[in-house]
Amino acid sequence: MPWQAKFLLLAGIWGSSFLLMKIGLRSLAPLQIAGLRILAGVGALLVLLSLTGGALPRDRRVWGHLMVTGFFLGTLPFSLFAASEERVSSALAGIGNATTPLATVLFSLALLPTERLPWRKLAAVLAGFVGVLVILQPWQAMGRPDAVGFGMTLVAGASYGLGWTYVRRTLSKSDLGGLSMPTAQLLVSSVQIVAVVLVWWAMHRSDLDAPWSVRPDATAPSALWPLLAVLALGVVGTGLAYMLQFDVVRAAGATVGATVTYLIPVVSVVLGVALLGEHLNWPQVIGAAIVLASAVVIGLPARRRVPMPA
């Protein structure tokens, strides 16, 4: 499959993940969604890894770095996105994901000594934050999105930016190819999320008999469809998506691979409006357009100076 097809497939998969999380919340708690998503994803990748004859990294230093990337690229954002959708729409959560390129620029400056920030990208980052303010509508007393919920999406998007910058700094020369690195990263995330879910369950034992107990309600008389939605989110939206992302980055480079972020909010908004009856106010539409335009500018290749002829 050409990388262009994988790119479009990845945008559709990740864009629909916000819809699947919204459906999952009908019967599952946010941390249960994050846990089931990661466990289903790593299970799928482990099966594929064994079928393709791949191997996991053996270097302890690599696994130490994976503990960091597994948290910032899996455990934290997956939990925050699911929790945010208890407060905001799936469409708005997808828009919050578009701030990842903005955060990547800032973290690259902090963690990569050779990184330089042209004035064009600096202006784009500032414009992106203006777009976030427009979405939040601080001048409105009513009708604005939940600040805590949308703030969770911003932190989750920033977590992706930090995680991929850390990968670029510490693991760029340790990639064994194939499914090795995405499987190892999700494996670490699975250990982390299991520990988090167990602590969460210990704090809610009076309401839940077990960490996997579901909560059917009026909107979901049966927990079957929410469970199937989260399983699809794990196997396809996490396991398969991680494999596709690494393939796109290897084939077309990190800059092209990061541009998938521009399409994710479009898919999430279309699905949220069409299938869940969600709607966005005009400031949210304008703010989303500003954020996406800023992300596109950030992703543009640097201009090369043409030397003057002698």
Description:
This protein has helices spanning 3-24, 30-51, 60-84, 90-97, 100-111, 119-136, 147-170, 180-203, 224-252, 254-258, 264-276, 282-299. The chain is mainly α and 310 residues long. It has one domain (3-299). Helix 1 crosses helix 4 (90-97) and helix 3 (60-84) crosses helix 8 (180-203). The longest helix has 29 residues, at 224-252. The N and C termini lie far apart (46 Å). The model has no long low-confidence stretch (mean pLDDT 86).
List keywords for this structure.
single chain; mainly alpha; 12 helices
Name the beta content range.
Answer: under 5%
Tally of individual helices: 12
Total domain modules = 1
End-to-end CA span: 46 Å
- Tell me the overall shape: globular
| H and E order | HHHHHHHHHHHH
Biggest sheet details: none
Q: How helix-rich are the residues, as a percent range?
A: over 70%
The count of DSSP E runs of length 2 or more, i.e. the number of strands, is 0
Structural class: mainly alpha
Cα-based radius of gyration, to the nearest Å: 20 Å
pLDDT averaged residue by residue = 86
Low-confidence stretches: none
